[in-house]
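Sequence decides. Our protein:
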Amino acid sequence: MKRVAVILLSVAALASAAQHQHQRHHHVAKRDPTPIEVISVPGPTVIVYELNGRFISEGEVREGLANGTLVLAQNGQLSSAPSSTFVAPETQAAYVAPPPPSPTSEYVAPVTTSESTPEAAPTTTSSSSEYVAPAPTSSSSEYVAPSPSPAAPSPQANKGGHNNGPSVSSSSGSGVDQDFPDGQLDCSHFPSDYGAVDVHWTGLGGWTGVQTPETTNAGFANILTAIHGGGCTEGSYCSYACPAGYQKAQWPTTQGATGQSVGGILCQGGKLHLTNTAMSSKLCMPGTSKVDVQVQNKLSSNAAVCRTDYPGTEGETVPLDTQPGQSYPLTCPDADRYYNWKGGKTSAQYYVNPAGVSVSDACQWGSPGNPWGNYAPLNLGVGYSGGRAWLSIFQNAPTTDAKLDFSVEIVGDNVSGKCKYSNGQYCGDAGCSSSTGCTVSVASGTATFVFS
């Protein structure tokens, strides 16, 4: 389980990020002789504010920062830049991280109390969570997979949530195919003119996450994660969402020493710098061109789909707000052409929220009382490997046993197998189950997740 610390002095708060983990199995059609590869996708990040063993709410943290009773300590300070002597990590061809600890299916939900006490020291531990994708009827070779993200949305009427700030459109992020002016833009400039989608509800100036790590010989350590009200500051890696059909193309080759992931562009010398020019000179890149994966909304209201920001904070903050009667590309990462950690390859994990929930409520950390955010009932797994796209529908277990209030089915002329969720049942070639998801594969053409 990963922990990322932010420290406050006087009345201090420790913000810890704990990786939400999944472990599940799905099955492809028995008639498909091609073995599916095992896909692991980390889930979102939970932020807990702790003061010397006592938990406080994010609201109390913000109020304390505003009235001066809370002060961020040392390089945990998110509102001012650290020393300009920050040394960017070298860009070697490939960094092989040490093996992760054993996976776990547990996560820590946010808790709050009203009491506060003096400071706590930062600690960073980590584990690589795995959700194991469907095992086929034949033998399967392993392909570890987490997830980065595409997307872009527009606002919506909410179903018990609230719309915070301006709307976000799935076509947001102009200039997505333009080369990024490396080292020319100020860190205070959010690069929406180069494809990045402004995710205003995170409270980070449009960024999906901001991470400030220490660099060691083994990789990054003591990775500080900015909280609501922070921004892209000196020495930080600033992560972002991309429009529908695209995904983040920038992350440093150096990664967490114990399995944490870091993503985005680097603020150094007051300017924004690319971190992965070997991958792309742009901020965003499309998924595979071998298969076209779509999502179609046949409902009477919006349905928010949120991708895990990976590599990065691994929160479900990358938005796609599907609208009634509309179809959108759903980014399908090519395992051989995307983020690779310790030989493990990347797929995408998407959270499907109940109909009518606003994207600003859906695509961020939630709470047990509401079936959205990380408590969304249903997940989609999407990735391309071995000449086929592997598409899954499965329950967001063990996080929640809530049931989605509409049906989801994978359809397409070249889809091998069947996979549908309806009325709490996941139905594939082997029959239906209330807990076990289903998987199909497709070698070419178009496959569509239909919401109805």
Summary: The two ends are 36 Å apart (CA to CA). The chain has two helices and 28 strands.
